[in-house]
């Protein structure tokens, strides 16, 4: 059996090759039959460059149908795909190229000169261009190739993709994802979220990240569904397309922005089957307001670059706000203390997981891999959480965000939840900053509603003193207009720690 993830998807979506796969914002469309021919052309092109199975293909391009053809064509050719955020700068890209040593680097035309220089320094043999509209050297060269290609046989453990973690602390790590990792997660989500024939996915996510590239696209590929493929999130554009969709995946910021639109209503969403949120925590107010206004309960889930999706609130049954649901079928999850011993229900501990979706380790980091996995094979996620009495998983935060002040542990999410519930507060982030006596000082950064003058910093501190132990109360509260976020909506606490430490 060919375990190449493309072959697994093709066996499913080619049952009806005339079905539209991608419907683009400019009116063009691509059927699943077209997809098979186009990915064959890209696979033939990559093979013509001398790339062999296992070689890497790096791409720093914007979202387009052709970028999808490149990704899937690389898989068909048995190559390893390395997507990069277009926002990455010279030092970051140079590091990735030097570390992964790809056989080809696909870049945007405006970056060609710099890309060629970085590729030359890293020993990358080929540089090709792909413009934001899908035109350029790469797509033109692919168009001259044959539309037939026999998908290269791959084993389940063979490498399919390398995704570099954000690298907010220390050296970025390349998570190695196999064909089995990708296929198993896609097929589990297909069943768990009840994808069906006739579903239409509204896709407004970037495709350099697990959420947009794997979770969203693979769900459609595994079921032969149509994707409304938009270049980016635009609230007004989403309102226009929702009546033509049944499934929407987004980060919390998308939902908060939709709720500010007057035209966003239950009637507009009457054909929608499912709204899914991930990549960052969903604020309780957003969860509640969405349900009250639209009549849908957002399904929140939990995943990582290294594992794909790990947990999800149920499709049928209670979707509990403030939780990420239950471990997905085939994924085992445990909460343990620092000695890897099980924690009691309700106790906060370290989240560890294992399953076919969990990666094999980090690229060329054998010593790091020994640290990241327990002796009995569980991956240390670095996240902290707890199980409630009904088995729902509650995320508390990253272990590196844990604040140790005067030898006592403070979990930021506990304090953030109290601050976020205060009238006039939009959201907050609680961090630890260096302190000569305490080691770390608890500090809160708070965003108030537009035009609100309350609560003040002193009022926030006073309110917290009546609800939590004194050592948990922030010594300082900073009022800001917004919190810094990365492209997937995660609050960048490293930037907050840096600015508040000055």
Features:
25% strand; globular; 502 residues; Luciferase, domain 3; single chain; nine-stranded mixed beta sheet; Rossmann fold; 25 strands; GMP Synthetase, Chain A, domain 3; 30% helix; alpha/beta; four-stranded parallel beta sheet
What do you see in this structure?
With 502 residues, this protein is of the alpha/beta class. 30% of the residues lie in helices and 25% in strands. It has helices at residues 5-13, 32-48, 65-76, 90-100, 112-122, 137-143, 179-192, 210-221, 235-241, 252-258, 284-294, 366-372, 412-420, 457-465, 493-500; strands at 20-24, 29-31, 56-60, 80-83, 104-107, 126-129, 159-164, 174-178, 200-203, 226-229, 247-250, 274-277, 299-304, 308-312, 326-327, 331-336, 349-355, 361-362, 379-387, 393-398, 403-405, 408-410, 425-435, 439-448, 476-480. The chain has a nine-stranded mixed beta sheet with strand order 2-1-10-9-11-12-13-14-15. Strands 4-3-5-6 form a four-stranded parallel beta sheet, with helices on both faces. Strand 5 (104-107), helix 5 and strand 6 (126-129) form a beta-alpha-beta unit. It starts with a helix and ends with a helix. 47% of the residues are buried.
Secondary structure layout plus pairing:
Elements: H1 5-13, E1 20-24, E2 29-31, H2 32-48, E3 56-60, H3 65-76, E4 80-83, H4 90-100, E5 104-107, H5 112-122, E6 126-129, H6 137-143, E7 159-164, E8 174-178, H7 179-192, E9 200-203, H8 210-221, E10 226-229, H9 235-241, E11 247-250, H10 252-258, E12 274-277, H11 284-294, E13 299-304, E14 308-312, E15 326-327, E16 331-336, E17 349-355, E18 361-362, H12 366-372, E19 379-387, E20 393-398, E21 403-405, E22 408-410, H13 412-420, E23 425-435, E24 439-448, H14 457-465, E25 476-480, H15 493-500
Parallel strand pairs: 1-10, 3-4, 3-5, 5-6, 9-10, 9-11, 11-12, 12-13, 24-25
Antiparallel strand pairs: 1-2, 7-8, 8-18, 13-14, 14-15, 16-17, 17-19, 19-20, 21-22, 23-24
Helix pairs in contact: 2-3, 2-6, 4-5, 7-8
């Amino acid at each position: 059996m060919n375990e190449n993830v493309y072959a697994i998807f093709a066996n499913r979506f080619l049952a009806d090759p005339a079905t539209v796969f991608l419907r683009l914002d400019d009116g063009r469309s691509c059927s699943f039959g077209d997809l098979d021919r186009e990915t064959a052309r890209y696979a033939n092109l990559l093979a013509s460059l001398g790339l062999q199975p296992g070689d890497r293909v790096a791409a720093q391009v914007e979202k387009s149908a052709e970028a999808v053809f490149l990704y899937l064509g690389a898989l068909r050719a048995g190559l390893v795909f390395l997507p990069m955020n277009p926002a990455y700068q010279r030092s970051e890209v140079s590091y990735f190229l030097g570390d992964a040593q790809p056989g080809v680097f696909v870049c945007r035309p405006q970056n060609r000169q710099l890309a060629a220089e970085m590729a030359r320094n890293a020993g990358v043999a080929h540089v090709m261009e792909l413009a934001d509209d899908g035109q350029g050297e790469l797509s033109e060269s692919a168009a001259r190739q044959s539309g037939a290609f026999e998908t290269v046989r791959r084993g389940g453990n063979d490498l399919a993709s390398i995704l570099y973690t954000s690298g907010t602390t220390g050296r970025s790590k390349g998570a190695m994802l196999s064909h089995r990792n990708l296929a198993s997660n896609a097929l589990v989500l297909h069943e768990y979220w009840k994808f069906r024939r006739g579903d239409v996915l509204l896709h407004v996510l970037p495709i350099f990240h697990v959420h947009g590239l794997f979770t969203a696209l693979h769900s459609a590929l595994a079921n032969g569904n149509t994707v409304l493929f938009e270049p980016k999130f635009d609230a007004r554009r989403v309102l226009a397309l929702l009546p033509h969709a049944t499934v929407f995946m987004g980060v919390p910021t998308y939902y908060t922005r939709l709720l500010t639109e007057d035209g966003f209503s239950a009637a507009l969403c009457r054909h929608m089957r499912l709204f899914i949120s991930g990549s960052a925590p969903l604020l309780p107010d957003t969860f509640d307001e969405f349900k009250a206004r639209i009549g849908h309960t957002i399904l929140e889930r939990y995943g990582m670059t290294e594992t794909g999706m790990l947990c999800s609130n149920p499709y049928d049954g209670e979707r509990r706000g403030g939780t990420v649901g239950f471990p997905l079928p085939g994924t085992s999850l445990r909460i343990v203390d620092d000695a890897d011993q099980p924690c009691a229900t309700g106790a906060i501990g370290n989240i560890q997981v294992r399953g076919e979706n969990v990666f094999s380790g980090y690229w060329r980091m054998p010593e790091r891999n020994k640290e990241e996995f327990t002796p009995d094979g569980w991956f240390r996620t670095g996240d902290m959480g707890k199980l409630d009495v009904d088995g729902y998983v509650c995320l508390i935060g990253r272990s590196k965000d844990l604040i140790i002040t005067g030898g006592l542990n403070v979990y930021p999410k506990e304090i953030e939840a109290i601050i976020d519930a205060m009238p006039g507060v939009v959201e907050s982030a609680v961090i630890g900053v260096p302190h000569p006596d305490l080691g770390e000082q608890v500090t809160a950064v708070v965003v108030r509603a537009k035009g609100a003058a309350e609560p003040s910093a002193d009022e926030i501190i006073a309110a917290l003193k009546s609800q939590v132990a004194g050592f948990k109360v922030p010594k300082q509260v900073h009022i800001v207009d917004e919190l810094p976020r990365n492209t997937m909506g995660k609050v960048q606490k490293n930037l907050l720690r840096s600015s508040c430490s000055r």
